[in-house]
């Protein structure tokens, strides 16, 4: 039997040296550089997969590209010009004007096919088909229209704060700087033929185009009265034509917006009609049938659901209408939630069909037989 060890026994010299070697000594610090090198070495062995995407549109000859773009909608052509710098350079060049004009030919109404040279086709596409402020880049909601005279599409705060335009208070200050002795009567005449923004109420000031106003001041400050009358008559006639052109653009923009609203309404109506058909198909596949009153005055099932639900359960009928009238496509996720089916069942619009009823009765008979078999086993054991 080995001798019993005493707690006060001192370890031997060899044991102390061995313990000191492993416990008292510092741990060797690992070099992170070695780990990084090993990681890089391992990763270098793995093949790196890089997908090279070639923009084949840039390889098309320019004349063929212009012919393709001439069949696009102006808004699509505008979006295409923003894809990369190379395409933008091509479509913003003077040679691309044929493509832009051909694109506008398919949509513009008679009378506004020719616009002034100061309004290029890309800018016209921006004014007609984009509802985004040029200043703050925020969408302009509602019936906000571009300022066709000023060639911009801006909200009122950006329009008043833009350095390119003059408010009524700034007109007199600019006049004193350009022509200090300018006549007040002439100034009122120039204000009448200067491109300006639309009047939008008592709290929105009319703004004028700064460059046009200063150019007219410098052009007329040294004219005599007779020369100014001749100049003003020609300028007023030109301004009337310019104003009529802007009015036609405004009417065309309103027409296009109305067409877009009607198209969107028709699209939503088609989606809603398809949703109702999908609901009927799904609850029919689930084994349910329609339970309509015989004295119903509506021919369609959904008309009966939407307009004569007062005789049904209130909350369930309301939920049924709300879920069925949504103008969004019916998805599997929404149907699997069971809200639509349960609301139709609770409101009494659909009931179990013969196939589903037979299946339920078969399950009940199976349960009864299993229950009877378990009872017989318990009696036999007793």
UniProtKB/TrEMBL annotation:
Classification via SUPFAM superfamilies: F-box domain
InterPro entries associated with the record: F-box-like_dom_sf, F-box_dom
Region called Disordered, residue ranges: 1-31, 360-382
Top-level division of the source organism's lineage: Eukaryota
Pfam family name, one: F-box
Ranges annotated as biased composition (Basic residues): 1-10, 365-382
Domain F-box: 54-103
Protein name per UniProt: F-box domain-containing protein
Organism the protein comes from: Cylindrobasidium torrendii FP15055 ss-10
């Amino acid at each position: 039997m080995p001798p019993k060890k005493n707690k006060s026994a001192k370890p031997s010299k060899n044991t102390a040296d061995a313990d000191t070697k492993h416990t008292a000594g510092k741990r060797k610090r690992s070099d992170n550089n070695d780990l990084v090198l090993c990681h890089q070495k391992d990763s270098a062995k793995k093949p790196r997969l890089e997908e090279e995407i070639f923009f084949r549109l840039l390889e098309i000859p320019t004349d063929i590209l212009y012919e393709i773009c001439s069949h696009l909608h102006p808004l699509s052509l505008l979006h295409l010009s923003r894809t990369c710098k190379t395409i933008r350079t091509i479509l913003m060049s003077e040679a691309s004007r044929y493509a832009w004009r051909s694109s506008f030919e398919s949509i513009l109404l008679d009378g506004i096919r020719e616009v002034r040279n100061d309004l290029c086709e890309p800018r016209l596409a921006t004014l007609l088909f984009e509802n985004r402020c040029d200043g703050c880049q925020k969408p302009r909601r509602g019936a906000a229209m571009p300022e066709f005279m000023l060639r911009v599409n801006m909200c009122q705060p950006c329009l008043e704060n833009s350095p390119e335009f003059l408010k009524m208070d700034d007109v007199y200050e600019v006049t004193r700087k350009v022509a200090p002795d300018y006549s007040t009567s002439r100034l009122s005449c120039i204000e009448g033929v200067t491109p300006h923004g639309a009047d939008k109420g008592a709290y929105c000031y009319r703004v004028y185009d700064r460059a046009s106003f200063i150019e007219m001041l410098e052009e007329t400050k040294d004219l005599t009265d007779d020369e100014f009358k001749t100049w003003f008559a020609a300028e007023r006639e030109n301004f009337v034509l310019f104003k009529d052109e802007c009015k036609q653009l405004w009417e065309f923009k309103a027409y296009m917006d109305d067409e877009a609203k009607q198209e969107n309404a028709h699209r939503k109506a088609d989606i809603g009609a398809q949703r109702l058909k999908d609901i009927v198909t799904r609850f029919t596949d689930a084994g349910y049938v329609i339970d309509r009153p015989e004295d119903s005055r509506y021919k369609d099932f959904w008309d009966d659901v939407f307009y004569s639900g007062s005789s049904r359960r209130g909350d369930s009928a309301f939920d049924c209408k709300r879920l069925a009238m949504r103008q969004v496509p019916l998805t599997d996720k929404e149907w699997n939630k069971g809200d639509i089916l349960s609301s139709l069942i609770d409101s009494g619009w659909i009931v179990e069909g013969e196939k589903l009823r037979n299946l339920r009765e078969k399950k009940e008979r199976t349960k009864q037989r299993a229950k009877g078999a378990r009872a017989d086993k318990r009696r036999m054991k007793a």
